[in-house]
Amino acid sequence: MARIACQYARLSELVSDEAQAAARWLSADERRAWESMRSAERKRTWLGGRTLAKRMLLQLLGETTWQRVAAAEIHIETRSTRPGHGERPVVFVGGERLDCGLSIAHTSRGVLVAVSRDVDLALGVDLVCRADASPGGLAWSLSTRERHWLATGPRNQRSGEQIWAMKEALYKAAQRGEGFSPAQIETVPGCPPTYPGTNAADVQSLESWRVDGHYAALAVVRHREQPPAPVAADGLLAATA
């Protein structure tokens, strides 16, 4: 498998001075988006996510190209053009799109980022802060097998929040523009995950772990290009078996 970098950092270590961090790490468009945010917590977590992501992207660029790049020259576009539907982050360097995989997750406490230069791999990460989770609040999203996994193990070792983090991570990596439907995603630890429309063999990995009071998860999915539909000589769609 291609090299994938995945890193967690505390928000307090990433953003000690918000104004300085914004000036150093954000592109002009990102700076305007950040300044327009009304929620102080949203501004802080969003800035922390950009900071860690760009640290890792700069390291990646340093390993693959001789060109020196300033953090403000890197722009990460994450806004969905269709509310409620998934779109993966797109990275631009000096206005040119960078072929890479990137996923960012954050809570009020920390940030998790994964990055890879393999353009065929889609990445998904998620963080769930255990202190903020509501016990039993995720039951509606669990499959029969997920409920069984939770019921048959020690309570202090098995958690619905762990499964939720894995569902979110897999969705981010596997989605093709559809909305998030957690009840249709099955992620039983130790078993092959299932995602609608995705071949199990294309899920390269799905792992979860504990870090700094969180459940963290990383999913890696290989997306295969769909073969073009056959076209008849007269330009009409040919029938297929």
Distance between the termini: 35 Å
Q: Could you give the order of strands across the largest sheet?
A: 1-6-5
**CATH superfamily heading of the largest domain:** 4'-phosphopantetheinyl transferase domain
Shape: globular
Number of domains: 2
Low-confidence segments, given as residue ranges, are 226-241
Name the helix and strand elements from N-terminus to C-terminus, one letter apiece: EHHHHEEEEEEHHEE
Assign the CATH architecture of the largest domain: Alpha-Beta Complex
**Per DSSP, what share of the residues sits in E-state strands of 2 or more residues?**
15-25%
Q: Which structural class matches the secondary elements?
A: alpha+beta
Count of alpha and pi helical runs: 6
CATH topology of the largest domain: Ribosomal Protein L22, Chain A
CATH C-level of the largest domain: Alpha Beta
| Radius of gyration computed on alpha carbons | 20 Å
The largest sheet, given as strand count, sense and whether it forms a barrel, is: 3 strands, antiparallel
Report the average pLDDT across residues: 86
State the share of residues found in helices, binned by percent: 25-40%
**Number of distinct beta strands:** 9
